[in-house]
Q: What sequence folds into this?
């Protein structure tokens, strides 16, 4: 593989990292509050809003039931409004974020629901206000599960990012399709595949290790 | 200090199945008192204790603490009120992500106490519960008893006037239970705390409480001084709860040979004698044989102290049959102690002794 190819690979890896990290960050910013609300707005819960719970729950399910490649194409008009264009790596962040947000919301919801209800009760008995319960009890206790969930989301987004080549996004997937497949370059394809495998392995083991470090439940 | 007036709690409704958990509870708990509420599981005791800090809203009735009807408090008022009421839980409910220090500090953090002062108040608390060497440990590294000590320190760190204990020893082994009860009693005396203690174990009431109320199916069926309730339980639930304690004194092998009902010819009655009150120290047994001339065989017995007053139970077999047993009962009753025939044994079943 030539230096030129190598620089293409590094470039593509950089684009993938950029898309995934930005989508993950914005997705977490939007998804985390949604997830906490989903976990706490049911009947008899901290922020009781049954209607909100049902509507947002349905919306999240709707978004998650659309295959990503369809979603990316279907929301092109929206992408154009947000990013100014529907083509390119930055534009690809829009559908990635739209897919990531409900996924993260469900992840966070599950993690928060996993916190022992007795802890919420204990905090209420101490005179904790609802927001204090979220930030002092629910989120710290759910953190190991949240870290594992975000690791899962990152790997998922790397997979999705390979598809945004179809709507003009760059990245490793795009490189593999255009050079490896369409230009009959098995060496490029192999390099892309190996890079993806290594990156996913590293991310997963880092996430696992961090979650284990944060989890004080098992010693 | 606490008055519960006509508390009713109904769960459910709106077409679904309803559950009437509390049915007209009236109770009054004095300042500095350790008040026990005992009942079987499902009797409503957990609901009852949670009405005191309004973790449970009542359907009907009033909870008045220090003259304030807590049902009328707004959000801010309720928050302020709860900060003066500590609560300890059966399953400890400690934050696994926080150290011992962090857990005990939590109520102060929530109240916005400055960091330097938090440290100044948490450390003496850890000292008080005997965990000063565990401050940087996580709950997962502690034993059940140690976890409950953290729970107690956390409940006390904000200097509450009232401590609610919800089955605090039910998840602990007997030895640890005793240590926790000792700690609670010691603390209540030192800090002059009012305590409400929920339990299903009569021994917790006996070892810790001043007064007790027995709850059954959402109603208070009996209430009073612990000693009196223990010695002469009126309601069958109370009797059953206490019987569990006392039967422990009657070995299994004996329980098998004691039969219910009055003795027939050739069978000897078994008499239960209960020693309480001012005559509990009298040498009843030797008088029985000497003065009344009755031969008997002691089957089992236990002597206990409740609130520093003696309380004993003796199971004896009257060797001379029914007539002797009745004579013995009359004699015991003449000394203001209680005695009754609880069954009979075959004369050969028990080795003479």
A:
């Amino acid at each position: 593989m030539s230096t030129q190819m190598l620089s293409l690979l590094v470039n593509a890896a950089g684009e993938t990292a950029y898309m995934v990290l930005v989508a993950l960050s914005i997705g977490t910013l939007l998804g985390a509050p949604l997830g906490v609300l989903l976990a706490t707005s049911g009947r008899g819960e901290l922020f009781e809003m049954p209607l909100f719970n049902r509507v947002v729950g349905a919306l999240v399910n709707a978004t998650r039931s659309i295959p990503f490649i369809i979603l990316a194409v279907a929301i092109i008009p929206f992408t154009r409004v947000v990013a100014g264009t529907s083509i390119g790596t930055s534009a690809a962040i829009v559908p990635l974020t739209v897919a990531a947000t409900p996924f993260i919301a469900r992840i966070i919801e599950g993690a928060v629901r996993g916190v022992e209800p007795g802890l919420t009760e204990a905090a209420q008995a101490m005179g904790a206000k609802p927001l204090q319960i979220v930030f002092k009890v629910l989120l710290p206790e759910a953190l190991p599960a949240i870290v594992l969930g975000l690791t899962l989301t990152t790997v998922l987004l790397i997979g999705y990012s390979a598809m945004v080549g179809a709507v003009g996004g760059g990245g490793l997937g795009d490189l593999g399709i255009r050079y490896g497949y369409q230009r009959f370059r098995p060496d490029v394809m192999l390099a892309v595949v190996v890079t993806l495998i290594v990156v996913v392995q590293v991310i997963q083991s880092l996430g696992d290790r961090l979650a284990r470090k944060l989890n004080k439940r098992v010693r | 200090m606490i008055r519960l007036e006509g508390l009713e709690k109904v769960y459910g409704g709106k077409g679904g199945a309803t559950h009437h958990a509390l049915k007209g509870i009236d109770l009054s708990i004095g300042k500095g008192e350790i008040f026990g509420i005992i009942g079987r599981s499902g009797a409503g005791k957990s609901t009852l204790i949670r009405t005191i800090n309004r973790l449970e809203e009542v359907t009907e009735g009033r909870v008045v603490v220090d003259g304030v009807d807590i049902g009328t408090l707004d959000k801010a008022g309720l928050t302020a009120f709860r900060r003066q009421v500590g609560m300890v839980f059966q399953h400890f409910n400690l934050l696994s992500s926080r150290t011992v220090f962090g857990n005990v500090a939590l109520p102060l953090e929530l109240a916005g106490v400055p960091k330097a002062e938090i440290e100044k108040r948490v450390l003496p608390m850890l000292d008080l519960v005997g965990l000063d060497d565990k401050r940087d440990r996580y709950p997962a590294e502690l034993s059940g008893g140690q976890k409950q000590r953290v729970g107690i320190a956390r409940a006390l760190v904000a200097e509450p006037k009232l401590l609610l204990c919800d089955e605090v020893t039910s998840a602990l082994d007997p030895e640890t239970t005793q240590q926790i009860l000792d700690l609670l009693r010691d603390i209540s005396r030192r800090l002059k705390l009012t305590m409400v203690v929920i339990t299903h174990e009569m021994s917790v009431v006996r070892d810790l409480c001043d007064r007790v109320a027995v709850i059954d199916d959402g109603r208070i069926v009996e209430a009073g001084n612990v000693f009196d309730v223990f010695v002469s339980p009126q309601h069958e639930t109370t009797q059953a709860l206490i019987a569990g304690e006392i039967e422990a004194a009657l070995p299994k092998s004996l329980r098998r040979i004691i039969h219910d009902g009055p003795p027939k010819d050739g069978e000897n009655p078994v008499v239960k004698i209960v020693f309480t009150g001012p005559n509990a120290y009298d040498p009843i047994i030797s008088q029985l044989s000497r003065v009344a001339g009755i031969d008997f065989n002691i089957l089992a017995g236990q002597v206990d102290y409740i609130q520093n007053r003696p309380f004993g139970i003796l199971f004896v077999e009257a060797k001379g049959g029914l007539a002797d047993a009745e004579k013995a009962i009359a004699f015991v009753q003449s000394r203001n102690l209680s005695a009754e025939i609880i069954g009979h044994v075959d004369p050969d079943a028990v080795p003479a002794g």
In short: Chain A has a mean pLDDT of 93. The two ends of chain A are 48 Å apart (CA to CA). Chain A has nine helices and no strands.
